[in-house]
Structure formats: structure tokens, C-alpha cells
Design a protein that fits this description.
Layout (H helix, E strand, L loop, with lengths): L15 E8 L20 E4 L7 E6 L4 E9 L8 E6 H6 L5 H4 L1 E9 L6 E3 L2
Parallel strand pairs: 1-5, 2-4
Antiparallel strand pairs: 1-6, 2-5, 3-4, 3-6, 4-7
């Protein structure tokens, strides 16, 4: 049987993009069963892009800063544009001072394995 190259799976998946909003785990709650409580400065996200407890690598569109964060919440809800809510710890690690300064921005994301380094710079 001859394989069709049009249906071949690429060796490296392309980066995905989405709009990401910011939130603060002010209530220090957690919505994924079996995970520790989320605190305000944890590197955590809310999303439906990866399973609960999985890690996701989030990068600025410039690619200058990336953060590996754990999914501990369900995310921004059923909006067409936003698929990622980032906790204050992620926002700060990406170089922004506050949730206000972040607002909502386009980011690149990809599933991540075991996070060796939480913040990386390509410079």
C-alpha cells in the first residue's frame, strides 16, 4: 500500500495561536480535581486546550519570552477568540506588571511535557 503524503502527520506540529486573557486566582481555588490549590502567583492557566493537570508552553508572539504553566482551571469559557486564561504568575513571568497591563493578547501555545525551566528567553 502506498502512503499519501497529503495525509502524512508532520514531524513537528506547528505552533498554535489564540487570544489569552488574564485572571487572578484571588480565591486560591482550583477546579481540576485532585490538584493542589492554586495561588495567585502560581504558573497556572485555565483552558480547554489541554487536559486538567497537563502543562502548556505559552509564548509571546515575538517569541522573546515563553512560560511553561500547568492547567488547573477551565478557562475563559466558550468564547470564539479566547481559549486561554493566564494566572498573574504567568503574566509576570512573561514580563508584564499586572493583569491590567496584559489585558488580552495573542499568544503562541503548545502542549509541554515535564517543565524543566519555567521561563525561557530566545535572546
Amino acid at each position: 500500500m502506498v502512503s499519501n503524503p497529503a495525509f502524512a502527520i508532520p514531524a513537528v506540529l506547528p505552533h498554535r495561536t489564540t487570544e489569552a486573557s488574564a485572571y487572578s486566582a484571588w480565591d486560591e481555588g482550583n477546579f481540576c480535581p485532585g490538584l493542589p490549590q492554586t495561588r495567585m502567583m502560581d504558573l497556572t492557566v485555565g483552558s480547554d486546550l489541554v487536559p486538567c493537570g497537563a502543562y502548556v508552553r505559552v509564548c509571546l508572539m515575538s517569541g522573546k519570552r515563553c512560560v511553561v504553566a500547568r492547567r488547573t482551571d477551565w478557562g475563559p469559557g466558550l468564547t470564539a477568540k479566547r481559549r486561554l486564561d493566564m494566572n498573574l504568575g504567568v503574566i509576570r513571568a512573561l514580563g508584564y506588571r499586572s493583569l491590567y497591563h496584559w489585558g488580552a493578547r495573542q499568544v503562541r501555545w503548545e502542549p509541554a511535557g515535564n517543565p524543566g525551566r519555567t521561563v525561557a528567553s530566545t535572546r
